[in-house]
Structure formats: structure tokens, C-alpha cells
Design goal:
- With 525 residues, the chain is α/β, with parallel strands linked by helices.
- The protein is built from 22 helices and 16 strands.
Length: 525
């Protein structure tokens, strides 16, 4: 009952706000502005509102302050009292928890598959002093009210504030089933719901507003990037079992600029020797894959940190189905050309464009299809380019097989695909979550990919027979050399085989051979 009243109150407040903001003349009168100034500001915040609806936090904060300023003039303080009187709705409880920075703590402590109302209330009881300080501040209450007004009327309703949290994804299966993905676990927010299927449908339409063609009966399921960089996937109409089954998923790419130094010194993802190896690999135009089996394990973040180590005098080509990396924003000083797949430009066409723009390094944000894998292999073989990308793989040792399965069209082509991959790749960097420290990601293994070299001219007949037996037992045209592995029991990195001479020779084309040889000689020290 309180939730229904709250929704109605938010709608009434929005009518008050919009009656002033939607009319430049009323806006000028309310804020004592000239007509010209009011019209200019009105045009400016119209654009800001569109950006806020697409998830840009700075634009949303601007709109919330604007709504709050109108409420300060038009809404009596007493009118807010009932809104903040208990019992609170799940949505309001969640907003209070978010403002106190408690969501991540609650998710880590959550032992079930649901975050319930009682969990939120218990947290707020424990934080009563801070909560009372917030609610005792009239400005805070007005801004929180403005934020929820914007969320319900212009934003993503109950999901709006969640998109800025430290979570991997948020999703909806129906109007009363909302979940988030945190450290690989799907946790339902049990009690959080949309007011109706219509409200959920409006959120779908707004979030997917940039899709071309648009989300409708003729295109009942699609994925699209928001301006913020998040990837939204929606489905409905005839693509789902029934009219009440409206699906929404938003994968949050709150990708921050993280360097290899940060991964080494702050997070312990790598150590000094691995850091030096990766730096030399990037300077030497080495090729690599960043792998991991979980969503949200940090493959894209790690890839971005590796791109930062590519020298500025090299041209970098990015092929991506989504603008997930956004490295142009992080590294504006680099010579980066990004081509995004869209209905009018395929990955194949994007690669042909790269051929004409003198790219020294070619990167695919996430390898999911044959065309992306082929582009990387051809980039390495035809362009003599360094290549890189991310790939879902359970283990580093399975990465080549996963790539070969993407490349081959028949079993007969399997060996040829593996040979091409062995010629193209140098390192596989496998990420995993630390089993005893769930918030920590480590490089579980670094593996060097090496093509098996056969010198048959001086072999006797007996040696050739023996070689054929070995080949039948192990038909792979490549070998995987584990350079380093993380020992979870010892809680540290173990350095095994040093980088091979073949790998050193390749890097030495672009960086000092002495440095490369020193790296190899000191690997086990």
C-alpha cells in the first residue's frame, strides 16, 4: 500500500516540476531569469536530460539538482514528511543503503540467492547514526526525492541508481523479479519491483532508444550500447513466452583506467617479473589473449591496461562489436582507430578498412565469432601486426582449442587452424578469482604458445618412425609452455619455464635484445 502511495506522490511531484521546466516562460518567472537566458538554459538541459536517461552520471546529477531546486520553491517541507515516514518501500530502503555505501557489504555477506527487505533494514539499524544524520538534513531529503522522481519518470525506475554501483550486471525477468550479478553470483533483490509491466516496458524502450532499427514487434530482441558504455539487452513481444515476460539485462562496463602498475602494486594481480614480461611483450609487438571463464573477471580491464603499454608511435586498430574498451577516452595521446560492428559494417569490412590504415597492433575487444578470430589471425600473418583480445575459456590450455573451433568449418581444417594460431599467438594470460579472497583477481597462468619445429632432413628412418608415433600420440602442431602459475596454497606466483629463444627473437625485432635476454635469464631467480 505504501509503495502505491509513494509512486503516486512521485508522479504528483513530477507534474509540479515539469509544469515549470517544460515551459521556458514559467521557468523564467520561477527563477527570475530573462526570457533569453531561460530559453538557453531550457535548451541545454533538454540535451542533458537525454544524456542522463542514457546513464551519464554527471548529466543525471545535474538533472537531480535542477529538480531539487524546483522542489525547494514549489513543495512545502511538510509534504515530504509522510514520504520518509516508515514503513519504507523496498525501493526507498535500497536508495538509503546505496547512499550509505552499504550495497557491496551486503552482497558480500549474502549467503543466499536473495537480498531481502530484512537485510536492508538490519543494515540501516546498524547505521542508525549516519542514517539519522542524512534524513535530518532537509537538502539531502529533497535531493533523494528528486532522484527518485527522475528515476521513475525519466530514468530506469528502480534500476536507475544500481547502474552506478560496483556490480557486473543487473537484470529483469518480470516486473517483480529483479536481480544483480556480483562477483559471478546472481542475487535477486527480493521485494524490489516495477509498478507494472507497462513501467518495465517503458524502461526497455528508453534504455534501447539508440537501437536502429528500434525495439518493437518487428525486432522483439536486441542488444545496444548506451551512451554510458553499458550494454543493454531487451526482449519481449513474440520473443518471450507471454506478454508479462519482458526481459531486460544491462551489463555494466564501469571500466576505469587501470594500469599494470595498479594491478601489480594495489591488487596483486601480477608480480614484478610478470609486469616486466608484459611490458616487453607490448613494446616488442607480441601477440596475446586474455582469457577467463567467468563474466566480470576483469578481462577487458586487463586488456585496457596492456594497450596502455603499446608505444605511442604505433598505430592501434580496435575491432569491436560494442564500444566496450573505450580506449580513445583513456589514452587520447595514442594513435587509436576503433571500428565498431553495426548493421551497416561487418567485422570483415572493418578488417579491410584496417588493412588500408597502417595499423601496427590489432585488438578485438571480445572474441565470440569466426570473423573476429579470422581478423586477428590474418592481422598477425598478413600485416605482421601484434594482436590481442579477450576470450572466454575455462583454462589457458583450452584457449587454442576454443579459437580453433571458431576458425574451422570442418574437422579436416582443425590442424590448419591450430597451425595458424600457433604462428599468430605468443602468450595466453588466464585470469581467475582467488578461491580464498573472493574480491581478488589474479593471473592464474601465463602460457607461451610455441609452434613445434620439425627438422627432418638429418633424421634416420628409425627416428622418423619414432617421430610419427609421437605425432599420433600428440597430434597438436603446437606446445604450451607454462611460464608462471599462481600457487593458491603458498599465496604467491611460481615462475617456471623462462621465455623461449623463439619468443625472445621475435620481441628483439623492436626492443633491445639485451633486455629480453636479461628478462629470460632472471625469470627463475
Amino acid at each position: 500500500m505504501k509503495d502505491k502511495w509513494m509512486r503516486s506522490f512521485l508522479s504528483t511531484c513530477y507534474c509540479t516540476v515539469s509544469s515549470i521546466l517544460e515551459e521556458p516562460q514559467k521557468y523564467a518567472q520561477a527563477f527570475k531569469l530573462s526570457k533569453e537566458t531561460a530559453r538557453s538554459k531550457w535548451q541545454s538541459w533538454q540535451k542533458t536530460r537525454e544524456e542522463a536517461m542514457q546513464g551519464l552520471l554527471q548529466s543525471k546529477n545535474h538533472m537531480v539538482l535542477l529538480y531539487a531546486s524546483v522542489l525547494a520553491r514549489e513543495l512545502k517541507d511538510e509534504a515530504m514528511e509522510e514520504f520518509f515516514m516508515p514503513p519504507h518501500s523496498y525501493w526507498l530502503l535500497l536508495e538509503l543503503v546505496l547512499d550509505l555505501g552499504g550495497l557491496e557489504e551486503l552482497l558480500r555477506q549474502c549467503e543466499s540467492a536473495a537480498l531481502r527487505r530484512e537485510d536492508l533494514e538490519d543494515f540501516l539499524v546498524d547505521e542508525k547514526a549516519r542514517l539519522d544524520a542524512n534524513l535530518g538534513d532537509l537538502t539531502y531529503r529533497r535531493r533523494l526525492l528528486a532522484r527518485m522522481i527522475f528515476a521513475q519518470e525519466n530514468g530506469q525506475d528502480v534500476l536507475d541508481s544500481l547502474q552506478y554501483q560496483n556490480i557486473d550486471e543487473m537484470g529483469v525477468l518480470r516486473s517483480d523479479y529483479i536481480y544483480i550479478v556480483f562477483q559471478g553470483r546472481k542475487i535477486r533483490l527480493e521485494g524490489l519491483s516495477f509498478a507494472s509491466n507497462t513501467a518495465l516496458y517503458r524502461v526497455q524502450k528508453k534504455a534501447a532508444g539508440r537501437a536502429r532499427p528500434q525495439y518493437d514487434y518487428n525486432r522483439p530482441a536486441l542488444s545496444v550500447d548506451k551512451i554510458s558504455g553499458s550494454r543493454v539487452t531487451v526482449a519481449g513481444y513474440l520473443a518471450t513466452p507471454g506478454p508479462g515476460d519482458l526481459y531486460f539485462n544491462e551489463r555494466l562496463f564501469n571500466l576505469k583506467k587501470v594500469t599494470l602498475e595498479t594491478l601489480r602494486d594495489k591488487y596483486g594481480t601480477i608480480d614484478q617479473k610478470i609486469y616486466r614480461l608484459l611490458c616487453q611483450n607490448q613494446r616488442g609487438r607480441g601477440s596475446f589473449l586474455v582469457t577467463g571463464s567467468e563474466m566480470g573477471i576483469g578481462k577487458t580491464t586487463f586488456l585496457s591496461a596492456l594497450i596502455e603499454k603499446i608505444p605511442n608511435y604505433w598505430g592501434i586498430g580496435i575491432l569491436d562489436t560494442e564500444n566496450e574498451l573505450r580506449v580513445q577516452e583513456h589514452y587520447p595521446e595514442k594513435n587509436i582507430l576503433a571500428v565498431i560492428e553495426n548493421p551497416h559494417l561487418s567485422i570483415e569490412e572493418g578488417f579491410r578498412y584496417m588493412l588500408k590504415t597502417s595499423r601496427d597492433v590489432l585488438v578485438v575487444g571480445e572474441i565470440t565469432c569466426r570473423e573476429e578470430m579470422e581478423s586477428l589471425v590474418r592481422g598477425a600473418i598478413r600485416l605482421n601486426a601484434g594482436i590481442g583480445g579477450t576470450l572466454h575459456a575455462a583454462k589457458a590450455s583450452l584457449a587454442i582449442r576454443c579459437c580453433a573451433n571458431l576458425l574451422k568449418e570442418s574437422e579436416r581444417q582443425s590442424r590448419m587452424a591450430e597451425e595458424n594460431l600457433a604462428d599468430s599467438l605468443d602468450l595466453i594470460i588466464h585470469l581467475a578469482r582467488h578461491p580464498y579472497e573472493s574480491r581478488r583477481i589474479v593471473v592464474e597462468e601465463i602460457v607461451e604458445v610455441r609452434r613445434k619445429e620439425l627438422h627432418l632432413e638429418h633424421l634416420s628412418l628409425e627416428e622418423l618412425r619414432r617421430l610419427e608415433i609421437i605425432r599420433r600420440l600428440d597430434p597438436k602442431p603446437y606446445e604450451l609452455r607454462v611460464l608462471a602459475r599462481y600457487d593458491y596454497e603458498q599465496n604467491g606466483f611460481v615462475h617456471l619455464e623462462p621465455p623461449s629463444d623463439t619468443y625472445i627473437d621475435k620481441l628483439s625485432r623492436y626492443v633491445s635484445r639485451r633486455r629480453c635476454e636479461k628478462l629470460a635469464s632472471e625469470w627463475r631467480d
